[in-house]
What we know:
Radius of gyration: 18 Å
CATH class of one domain: Alpha Beta
CATH architecture of one domain: 3-Layer(aba) Sandwich
Largest sheet: 6 strands, mixed
Distance between the termini: 34 Å
Structural class: alpha/beta
Shape: globular
Number of helices: 9
CATH topology of one domain: Rossmann fold
Number of strands: 10
Amino acid sequence: MKIMIRLENINLALGGAEILKNVSFHIRRGETGVVLGASGSGKTTALRLILGLLKPDSGRVFVDGEDITDFSEEDLLRVRAKMGMVFQAGALFDSMTVGENVAYRLMEKGGFRMEEIEEKVRGSLRFVGLEDSIDQMPAELSGGMKKRVAIARGIAASPAIMLYDEPTAGLDPLNSHNISNLITRLKEEQGVTSVVVTHDIPLAFDVADYTAFLHEGEVCYVGGADGLLASGDGCVREFINHSGRADAGGPRAGFINGGAG
Length: 261
């Protein structure tokens, strides 16, 4: 199966501080890869490298078979067109309706008739269960609804890759579960490759085909989510133990909260 995302021996320092140290992982086409770790572990920095917003000091970044490490901004825009992005806070425009928010990227990209845009917007909102909210303003939505609108906006242009930065942050367990279901449905129904940056272990177990655990900028574990529980790495064990994990009862038993912010 084709590798869609690959970070290869990445080193990056910002402001004199080492952020990523010899980081390598890959995600295959149609898989959901989770980059897991505590705040400050370098997870979001990895996402910015995939988007081409940062360049590594050494190492290479590959997206859909292309080495984007030294791409020009013009070439990066072409690569980003294959991606949808869900930001941690949702990043909706407060002055626009839900429908206008979802349509924004399509309008910016151009080349679509208004009828096509409306069809894509309604289809995306229908996928996340919010078609009836198309004329509402973001201020009228709950936190979970805002995250679902952000996902609808991300998928409106039919991306091959979806990137999520802490998609369940600040959400209660029910809304967190709804988000994980949407990520899984995108993989199963549309074959979307996803990269999910999170500290939410229940989310990782729900959606991950592949997990990379980062601690202080270094990869401590790569593999299936279930393998985290068997890992002998002290950093992994400490993270799991401080996340409300009970040792008995299956991979999701004992989790206290699926949406810690």
